[in-house]
Each structure stands twice: as C-alpha cells, then as structure tokens.
Design brief:
222 residues; globular; mainly alpha; 2 domains; 82% helix
Length: 222
C-alpha cells in the first residue's frame, strides 16, 4: 500500500479543519511543518503556506494557537543553541503569521551586531517581513546590487504573467502587475533611504524600456 505523501497530509489537515476535526488537523499541520521539507525540499513553499492554514485553525481552536506559540519558543531556543539559520527563518515565519513581527525584528537587529553573517544569509527569506514593517534602512544595508534586485523582480513578474496567460487565459495579469508595481515602489523607498538616486534613475530608465517592450507602461514617481 502506498504511504501518504506530505501533500496528502497537508490536504488531510485542511479537510479535517473544515470538518471540525480540530485536534486531528492540528496534529497533521504540526507533522507537515516539522517533516515535509526533510522528506523533499520542494515542499519549502508549502511549509510556509501551511502556517497560514494552521493560524486559521488557531483562531478557532486554542490548542492550535498554544502549539504555535510553543513552536515559536522552541525554535528560538534551538537557534540560540545551534545558530542554525534555518531555525531562525522558521521562527521568523511563525512570528509573522502570529503578527509578532516586532519580536523577530528586534532579534534581527541584535543579531546584526553579534552574528552579521547569519543575518546576511537569511535576509532574502525575511525581506518581506522587513518591508511590511517599513524597515527601509535595514533593507538598504543588504541590497548591494540594486539593478540585480530589479532584474530579479522583473523575472518574477515575467514568470507569473507567463503562468497566468498559459494556464488561466491572463486572468491574473492585473493582479501580478499590481504586485510588481508595489515591489518596485518598495525598492525605490529602500534606495531613497540610502540616498541612491543615481541607481533609482538607472532602474527607472531600464523599467520604462522593459515595460515598453512588453506593451505596457507605469508612471513611477520617486
């Protein structure tokens, strides 16, 4: 008999949640979070998406909330002992889903002084948390190649549009363009804090050319 895959477990956890089988759902969400990536690293994205579902369960089932809190504390304790950056990323993601961003950001600022290599290594994984909380100066310190960062955002946009048009007849094109606009605006905010106007101007010129070649345009002001 074929064993359940991590994806099967995740789907089962959600089904159990919708059916009100909260204790079983919690058990499976926790198993998925702890084990899925160890089985197959392709589950890294699903691991963090599963936290959002776990949090939905936690809002209706207090033991699920308590387990998330305990998991957060356990990860932090393990990180303090091992200095394993992946434990720190997991801790950051749980803080984020629990709306405890300040707790993580305060720790990040301390670690910048004590373990700068660790914060450098995890920056890209927690950048969205720093941006959401308008920590522009921190982000500016880690973005050394602003044009490279722009190209990364453009490549992500192109890939999402490709998927939207190929699989969904362009249904999500506008959503992805809106996301891209926000990404670029945030990049400009970061660079502005660092007084990097020359880089902003270079990116703006490239942006206008890139959008023109794609049949679109965006009016950016900085």
């Amino acid at each position: 008999m074929q064993k359940n895959t991590p994806q099967d477990i995740l789907e089962l956890a959600y089904t159990q949640y919708t059916e009100g089988k909260y204790s079983l759902s919690l058990e499976n969400y926790e198993w998925f979070f702890d084990n899925a990536v160890q089985i197959d690293t392709a589950y890294i994205g699903a691991k963090y998406r599963s936290l959002k579902e776990w949090y939905c369960l936690a809002k209706e089932y207090k033991p699920a909330y308590n387990t998330l809190i305990n998991k957060k504390s356990s990860l932090l304790n393990s990180f303090n002992t091992s200095k394993n950056k992946f434990l720190l990323i997991d801790y950051a993601k749980i803080c984020h889903v629990l709306n405890y961003d300040k707790e993580f950001i305060d720790l990040f600022k301390k670690l910048e002084k004590q373990y700068p290599k660790i914060t450098k290594d995890i920056y890209i994984s927690v950048e969205h948390i720093l941006i959401k909380n308008k920590e522009w100066k921190i982000c500016n310190d880690y973005i050394k190649d602003s044009m490279g960062k722009y190209k990364t955002l453009l490549n992500k946009f192109d890939e999402l549009i490709r998927i939207s048009e190929g699989a969904y007849n362009g249904e999500y094109n506008q959503n992805y363009q809106n996301e891209f606009e926000v990404d670029i605006q945030n990049l400009f905010k970061i660079l502005s804090v660092g007084n990097r106007q020359k880089e902003i101007d270079e990116i703006l010129l490239k942006l206008k050319n890139d959008l023109s070649s794609r049949g679109g345009s965006i009016d950016y002001t900085t």
